[in-house]
## 1
Amino acid sequence: LRCRLPGGIIKPYQWIEIDKFAREHTYYQSIRLTNRQTFQYHGVPKGKLQPMHRL
């Protein structure tokens, strides 16, 4: 699941919440940074895709 990050800028408190979300909702409990100025969650169960898109 790839998320949008306008301008590639993120504040520390946002990063903490993104990390917390990854730990709670993905198999690998990690975030991957991309060269597209955004980040990706890997290992998201299919049942959690719909709720994640609402965020």
Note: The CA atoms of residues 11 and 17 lie 10 Å apart.
## 2
Amino acid sequence: TANNNFLNVMGYALTEIKGKHHRSFCEPTLVNSPEYAEFWRKLNHGEFIGDQFKRIGKHGRVVWLEATYNPVHDAHGRLYKVVKFATMVTDQVAREEEVSQAASVAFEISQQTDVSAQRGADVVQNTVQTMRKISEEMQTASSGIEALGKQSLLINSIVQTIGGIAQQTNLLAL
């Protein structure tokens, strides 16, 4: 049986589900899974189960339930039924999924930002290294130019000395 709250949440009338197995409210992938077999093994052994469960309502609508499956034993300790208490948490699960997706997007953006920042740092580092090399080359060129200037002065001095000697030689030759 099912109470009116369950029927309203799932979108069914009692006549539509009376006599139907629990698997009618589950996705086929769940029904054929080891987890679902374990679920029934636990219930058949009188074990309590509580969790959030994804179920399928009328027209394939996804319904999330926060539910407990509570074993009820007779006076002899034999399991004779399981009572389910459930609260619909579909909206809450949807919000949690939205938050999770937003967190994933934020994480991806932060990862991309980290990569971009690292690329920017690499560009700056390469630019600094290039500027250092240019500075070193300019220093070397400057030293070379300074040495050329000194040699030019020396050559000029030598030329003047030779010029002076030549002039004295011309005077002596007269």
Note: DSSP finds five helices and three strands in the chain.
## 3
Amino acid sequence: MHPPRRAIWSAPDGGGRDFLVPIVEMAALHGIFWGTAKVLGKPYADISLETMRRNLTDGWVWDEDAFATNAFGHPYQGSLAYTAARSNGFGFWGSVPFTVASSVLWELFMESESPSTNDLITTSIGGVVLGEVLHRTALAILDEGEPTLARSVISLLVEPVGGINRFLFGRRKNDFFPVPGSFLQGMAGVTSNVDNYNDIDGTRFDVPNQLEGHLGVEVVYGPPQLTSGDYDQPFDYFTLTARMGFSRDTLTVGFFSRGLLYGDRFQFRSVSGLWGLMAGYDFANPNTLRVSTVSLGIGGVAQVPLTSQLTLDSTATVAGVPFGHGGGLTSPESARDYHFGPGAQSAFELGLVRRGVGRVGVSVRNYLISGAFLGEGVELITYATARAELLLAGQHGVALEAFVANRAGQFGIGSDTLRQRATQIRLLWTFSKGPGFGTR
């Protein structure tokens, strides 16, 4: 770990918690978001004392905004409020009230529309999970090598509010925790869509295939075989996979994160790992195969050394979904063209790692989203990935991936089941920190 960088204003000891700064920053963020919406002519930005009074008295509703707004925009807005508190000396739990308060104040006073229950859920839970992952990732980027301008810029992009606070006030003393051993990987390459189809009302038709660019990041923070000590704080262990596919006509994003809220490591003979209560936030938007969830459930990681250089790495989680978004509606009556409601999800990953050589593995994520809140059908969405990766020279390598997304959507009792599938092949260049891919 490196000493704190010189700040414009900073306390001599690095400073403890600061209540005023995150409150001012939340107000500034609300002003920026509201002002931008007002300039763009968004109707919800037409606020007045009358709209505020009405929002306080008329009660909360389920809103029907667009998928990107509800599934990503609100959680990201929540993460900014969370990191405002987190980078001002507050711990994980101490930053949660700021996130919830920020969401409540926005819903009541910064929009003319009725306050939204689903926005409160996703902004609060998604904002906390996303915020903690981005906060720790930004600090890991700063601390995993010699201080450079590039590290500072990347850290700022990952955690904008935290980066500004570190520039102005320096690292708070509560931020000087040891960063556990972590695995970071960047990747870039091309994706070919090889087998896409929709099956609507029993009629199958192909979706045009095209070549896309592909960027990605993978983080395994605090893996059990590389980290000494107990998992005392929430998210001392977490994983993050972020992907982006792009072409002239499309932009798809995938963001999958989960962290250990409460748990411990275990050791059984040669098998080591961790288990406990996991919290997660996922978002992916490949057309109507899209899904977004906030989740809470049980999960574990087990690593089995087969030889001194060969390790079997496995992860499994089963979680409830307080609120999720998924799929698509064929004839939407509003901006909402997807199902939303409670549900469940699971994830299973299995990999074989040869230290300094490469790895092979598979991962499967299943999502069940019920339209129970509005009396609508159900979405069952599965993402499956198979991957083979070879290190070529030092930290540089090449990976080949096969990705399949499958959707079965139903729109009410007695309705037909709509089935869709997308299959992609990806060829990627990779740059990895650490030859063990998160294992010893």
Note: The radius of gyration is 22 Å.
